[in-house]
């Protein structure tokens, strides 16, 4: 192990955090409360091991021996997911990066889309996406104009885009009060527009469908929709996310938050 209870010596892997990144993140993670048995492994060692899994795509049992034991690492991953640490940390960094980019903390516009990915042969919810011919799960995401994820919901791939959007946009009743417009593709037209009518009346929120041209025959970048497609490209750089290896969909959502957390840390502290 390259540091012991805060005594840092060197950086082990490309996925490991730098000193500046750790200083930004350490106050957002739960600390030892001072009673019970003291932890044997530093929080930074635990987080580096989790990032190793997210970036490298290996299973928990295949963690290198110089990192913390996989049982301990997965235990922290599960515990912090149950406590909402991953989403809270991610949301704080979204706010920080938006301010660094000259944006206001609360976005006024978002882009909605979904991504279907294959699932491994483990147990867990799954479905067949007849449109993309994929047996697996579907990631429904809402991003801001910077491509940062505002909300994510993972469902079986058989769930229609409009149904997944209802689960996703249910968060808007409690957050993002300044959100006024959401751009989406033609798959969200129809009943979803009628479902959003109460939010449109109360919060002046509207859904705008960005369609392809009637005579379009080849690839062309569409306004606003390319932003969320770029976010999906960012997620594919993390090998753990190229295929869904989690049994629980909440674990899949946590892995997405972890990947975006590392991406934002690298932007704040290159």
From N to C, what is the helix and strand string?
EEHHHHEEEEHEHHEHH
Major beta sheet summary: 6 strands, mixed
Mean pLDDT over the full residue set: 87
- Predict the CATH topology of the largest domain: Nucleotidyltransferase, domain 5
Number of strands: 8
The CATH architecture classification of the largest domain is 2-Layer Sandwich
Characterise this structure:
The protein has helices spanning 19-25, 43-56, 70-82, 85-100, 161-169, 191-195, 197-203, 225-236, 249-268, and strands spanning 3-4, 7-8, 109-118, 127-129, 134-143, 149-156, 181-184, 206-209. With 270 residues, the protein is α/β, with parallel strands linked by helices. It has 2 domains: 3-83, no CATH class; 104-246, Nucleotidyltransferase, domain 5, CATH 3.30.420. Strands 3, 4, 5, 6, 7 and 8 form a 6-stranded mixed β-sheet that branches. The chain has a two-stranded antiparallel ribbon with strand order 1-2. The radius of gyration is 20 Å and the shape is globular. The two termini are 24 Å apart.
Please outline the helices and strands.
Blueprint: E1 3-4, E2 7-8, H1 19-25, H2 43-56, H3 70-82, H4 85-100, E3 109-118, E4 127-129, E5 134-143, E6 149-156, H5 161-169, E7 181-184, H6 191-195, H7 197-203, E8 206-209, H8 225-236, H9 249-268
Parallel strand pairs: 3-7, 7-8
Antiparallel strand pairs: 1-2, 3-5, 4-5, 5-6
Summarize the structure.
The protein contains 9 helices and 8 strands. By secondary structure, the protein is an alpha/beta fold.
């Amino acid at each position: 192990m390259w540091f012991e209870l805060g005594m840092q010596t060197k950086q082990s892997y490309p996925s490991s955090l730098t000193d500046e990144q750790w200083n930004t993140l350490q106050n957002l993670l739960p600390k030892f409360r001072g009673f019970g048995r003291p932890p044997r492994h530093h929080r930074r060692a635990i987080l580096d091991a989790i990032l190793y899994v997210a970036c490298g795509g290996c299973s928990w049992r295949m963690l290198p021996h110089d990192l913390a034991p996989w049982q301990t690492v997965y235990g922290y991953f599960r515990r912090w997911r149950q406590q909402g640490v991953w989403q809270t940390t991610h949301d704080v960094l979204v706010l920080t990066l938006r301010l660094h980019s000259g944006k206001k903390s609360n976005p006024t516009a978002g882009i909605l889309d979904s991504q279907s990915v294959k699932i491994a042969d483990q147990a867990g919810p799954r479905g067949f996406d007849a449109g993309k011919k994929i047996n697996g799960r579907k990631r429904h995401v809402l991003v801001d104009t910077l491509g940062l994820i505002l909300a994510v919901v993972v469902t079986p791939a058989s769930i229609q885009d409009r149904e997944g959007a209802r689960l996703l946009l249910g968060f808007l009743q409690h957050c993002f009060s300044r959100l006024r417009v959401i751009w989406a593709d033609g798959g969200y037209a129809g009943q979803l527009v009628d479902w959003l009518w109460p939010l449109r009346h109360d919060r002046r929120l509207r859904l705008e469908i960005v369609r392809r041209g009637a005579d379009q025959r080849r690839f062309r970048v569409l306004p606003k929709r390319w932003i969320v497609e770029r976010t999906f490209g960012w997620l594919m750089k993390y090998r753990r996310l190229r295929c869904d290896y989690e049994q629980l969909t909440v674990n899949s959502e946590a892995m997405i938050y972890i990947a975006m957390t590392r991406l934002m840390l690298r932007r704040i502290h290159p």
